[in-house]
Amino acid sequence: MKKISSFILMLALTAVTVLAQTPAGWAKLGKTVNFYVANDLGRNGYYDQKPIAELMGRMAETVDIECVAAPGDVHHFEGVRSTTDPLWMTNYELIYAHPELMLPWYPLCGNHEYRGNTQACVDYSAVSARWEMPAKYYTKVLEDDGLTVRLVFIDTTPMMDKYRNDTGKYPDAGKEDIQKQLDWLDKTLTDAKEDWVIVLGHHPIYAYTDKSDSERADMQKRLNPVLLRHKNVAMYICGHIHNFQHIRKPGCDIDYVVNTSGSLSREKVEKTDGTQFCSGVSGFSLVCADKTSLSLHLIDKNGNVVYTVEHKK
Q1: Cα 227 to Cα 206: distance, rounded to the nearest angstrom
Q2: Which of 39, 61, 106, 108 is at 20 to 30 A from 152, Cα to Cα?
Q3: Would you give the end-to-end CA distance of the chain in angstroms?
Q4: pLDDT, tens digit, 9 for 90 and up, residues 199-233
Q5: Which pLDDT band, with edges at 50, 70 and 90, does 19 fall under?
């Protein structure tokens, strides 16, 4: 079935149109399956991290949240050294302490995790009751009341030459087999029969950023062709840039979404080719799905929905 994406038109792409939300308003956003996307978090609770964590907990009191997808950079700045690194407490456990956040977290390694011990991020799954990272790339299916949503988590740092070649700062990046992961992704998407398929990685394929152009070039060369081969991919969601961006390319049914930082955002953001919306606020995303629509709500640190990506069948 052909997918048609519709979205809220903005008068100015860099402006934020705020829809004020209350707990009653948040509850109306929920659908059959709901989950959070939160990334670029680890600041030991500073900046906006702790207030956003508390907001996520309060919102989960009224919206039935299945899990938190955390596509990278849970730990700034040098990753973790082991499963007993104190950063697990100060960046994660003690910050996301609301009872409603005691649910599965599905993380990925970002480039900051790759500065440390990436295997420790996988092994921490045996320590924490809610940290569920079985491998550096993996897939999970959310199911409720007959609706299925497949989340495909991919490891993007090794896909970029700038990280692979810097063995001093990113010692694990060059050890990963890019083609093996892409072949796994291709097969996973081929076999996926769920109502919705969402791919998540840390780095953007398309985005406005002052970071090296080689990052997007490598992602467009290596990852994007695999996604484009599969008509069931509704969204590619990433982080890394620390602001909100929604990009649509002509003739392509995939919504490319950059989720902002859950701690410290980068306020400077401009439109690029295909930009439908952008904003430099900090926050997180709420994804809600039913049989006919997939809604991704961009939530700022005050709990306002600043924009919604609406993907319909």
Answers
A1: 13
A2: 61
A3: 7
A4: 999 999 999 999 999 999 999 999 999 999 999 99
A5: low
